[in-house]
Amino acid sequence: MSAPFRSENFLDPQGALVDEPSYLRGWSGRPTLMAAAHRHDDLEINFVAGGGPMLYLYGGELIEVAVGGLAVFWAAIPHQLVASQATRVHWLHVPFDQFLAWGLPQPLLARVLSGVPVISPAARADASDPAKFTQWAADLAASDDELHRIAMLEIQARVRRLALATVGDPAHRHAGDDPALRQAVSMARYIAHHFREPITVADVAAAANVHPTYAMTRFRKVVRTTIGDYVKLYRLAEARRLLVSTDLPASQVAAAAGFGSVSRFYRVFTDACGTTPARFRHGRGL
């Protein structure tokens, strides 16, 4: 059994929130704690192969992935590796359009796009996963389209098997006692649950029972972005979800995602995504 996470295991970030490019890739190694939350339009798949567990701040919760555990989540939602005892991890990033083209069962697709990770506990580990992840990374790195197709079919099958094995399972949330992280998680959880509503810094601060000024300082110290920018990232993720999973007009997408006006929605979305909402939807086949 791994040792419990302690305060000294947690990262004191010194960066800013990162918006990373999306592309198909696989790699492995020892994880490095993330100096800031980041996001990218991929399905992210993590497999912890050795050492101890990893701890993510994701979707307003602390999510733990144990050794032998497999985690699948939509990386458009801001996430940050804040603590780790793992010595070897395998990662896969599958671009959003390729992930959607899999035609996954609607319950699984809805769960992933709503920001609930799919995680298998170590007790359900697949002994073949280490070899599979190594092979997939090699195939994706090769200049061979057929190897890419084979790897993608096998990765899709692994995700589908994971979904079947974890039907009804809740996310594996971590109950830590580090005060700074606990306060930041309380605020991130409030944002994750209320970003569709008009919310203020005072609302977010109240969720952690701290003064608004202290809340802004504490949140930025842990998550390395402002409360306002974090809310905006959630609204953008929700807008992406609605654009690819519904035929709602842009005005209704803007309202449902929490943007105050259609003009603000278009401006923020275009600046962040490099394309308009209509072109983003068209590129995903809707």
TrEMBL record:
Protein's organism: Streptomyces exfoliatus
Alphabetized SUPFAM superfamilies for the sequence: Homeodomain-like (SSF46689), RmlC-like cupins (SSF51182)
UniProt xrefs under Pfam families: HTH_18
Lineage: Bacteria, Bacillati, Actinomycetota, Actinomycetes, Kitasatosporales
PANTHER family associated with the record: ARAC SUBFAMILY, HTH-TYPE TRANSCRIPTIONAL ACTIVATOR RHAS-RELATED
Protein origin, superkingdom: Bacteria
Keywords associated with the record: DNA-binding, Transcription, Transcription regulation
Protein name as catalogued: Helix-turn-helix domain-containing protein
Ranges for domain HTH araC/xylS-type: 185-283
